[in-house]
Amino acid sequence: MKNLKRLVISVKSSINTLIDEVENHEAQAESVLAELVSLEKNTRLQLHRLAKLGKDYQQHIEELQQQAYTWSKRAIQIREEDESKALQCVKRMRDYQQQHKRVEKLLDNVNEQKNKSADDLRYIRQQIRQLRNKKAILAARENHHRIPLHKAKDTTPLQDMNDVLSRWEEHIVCHENETDDPEIDDELDQAFTDVEDELELHTMLTELCQTDSSSNDHPGV
Q: Angle, nearest 10°, between helix axes 83-146 and 2-21?
């Protein structure tokens, strides 16, 4: 457990150092998380193997107990008939009892290590959850600063886009005015021209009438 804590502390120290050196902090965090996830996977595998080994030892202990009991019964049954065989049965019983003690000690070691591995697994999973949560929060905070909403900045990508669209609109309006203004000027000019032409025609008509009247008044001229 102490070695594992030292490893996690070392990983955290590496994170703090790399945060100052690496440009892509999120990718670096993913790399560290991947190492912890790999460690969690290996710890789970070890815990599974220890549980299986403990189960095998427990089964073996029960078999040894049964064998010791069987040979003790045989020693009792044959003692009056053949004490020599009875002693051999007792020796078998003692052997199984000794094996039982050795395997029981192995089982105790396995259970002890299994408990440690279980504690390690809980600790690693806790670290993974904490790092994932912190990574998610930091990624969201970093992304928030990238979004140019109502930030007090001189230039932002959104402001740049608005400026481009505004200049585009001005360009279109300018060309629309260039197309419409000549048509408006032509209509106005034509209106004045028509009035002036009508006045000129009236003047000419008046002059013609006056000329004709003068000719009638002075036919001999």
A: 20
